[in-house]
Design goal:
Blueprint lengths: L2 E6 L17 E2 L2 E2 H12 L4 E6 L4 H10 L7 E4 L4 H10 L7 E6 L7 H14 L1 E7 L4 E5 L3 E5 L5 E10 H7 L11 H7 L6 E3 L10 H11 L2
Parallel strand pairs: 1-4, 1-6, 4-5, 7-11
Antiparallel strand pairs: 2-3, 6-10, 7-10, 8-9
Helix pairs in contact: 1-4
Length: about 220
């Protein structure tokens, strides 16, 4: 069945201390989002890529594509007021009822072909595949009434993207109304009762949020 990638890039530049949205910052000679799109295109020439951007950024993005002679194939879709609504808009642009959809953060440019492939392979077997990594450091729980206490970090995982699901599951799950605890696709699918299958992500698959993250991305992308 057809594979789709919905790449969501609706961030601002606030934590980057910049007026330029983080997805448009240049890393190793190319805007972050272009690295991300190329990573998915390198996975498969047949992958249907859907880029979701705020409509107000369309012209800026088109100018960047001209400047960098960016010719990758993708479908451009207008984003929504939240990540949930942006993903929903991306799903609404798919003219099919079967297939597999990987949703990925546009500001995670260091995503390997192997992780993308594993996500689609696992989703084909189990219906879902959510990239995650074990915690490296100790963690503590903070309670305003009880104070803080140590937790067993082996019981937790850091969740990443891609998060890949059967298309019918996605269409069903995203038919609900938005709720504040919908922080990623897995939380939306879980709300509807669908099982969440975890797969191994990668520590280098960082989400660029701060200037320090850009330096890490530069290093990883240069390898």
């Amino acid at each position: 069945m057809q594979e789709y990638a919905v790449i969501v890039a609706g961030g601002s530049g606030s934590r980057m201390k910049s007026d330029i949205p983080k997805q448009f910052h240049t890393v190793n000679g190319l805007p972050v989002i272009m690295h991300t799109i190329r990573a998915f295109r390198n996975y498969s020439a047949d992958l249907h890529i859907i880029l979701v951007l705020p409509e107000i950024q369309f012209l800026f993005w088109e100018n960047l594509c001209d400047t960098y002679q960016f010719k990758e194939r993708y479908q451009l879709v207008s984003g929504g007021s939240t990540r949930f609504h942006s993903v929903k808009n991306g799903l609404s642009s798919i003219d099919a009822v079967e297939g597999y959809v990987a949703v990925h953060d546009g500001v995670r440019p260091v995503i390997s072909k192997e992780v993308i492939a594993a996500s689609f392979f696992t989703a084909a077997e189990f219906g879902s595949a959510v990239a995650s990594v074990p915690l490296k450091e100790s963690i503590r729980s903070i309670d305003p009434n009880l104070g803080n206490r140590a937790l067993d970090r082996t019981h937790f995982r850091l969740v990443q993207t891609p998060q890949t699901f059967r298309l019918p599951w996605m269409l069903d799950a995203f038919s609900v109304d938005y709720q504040e605890h919908f922080t990623d696709c897995a939380s939306v699918l879980e709300e509807k009762g669908y099982p969440i299958q975890l797969i191994d992500g990668a520590y280098e698959n960082i989400k660029i949020t701060t200037p320090e993250d850009l330096k890490w991305a530069e290093t990883y992308l240069a390898l």
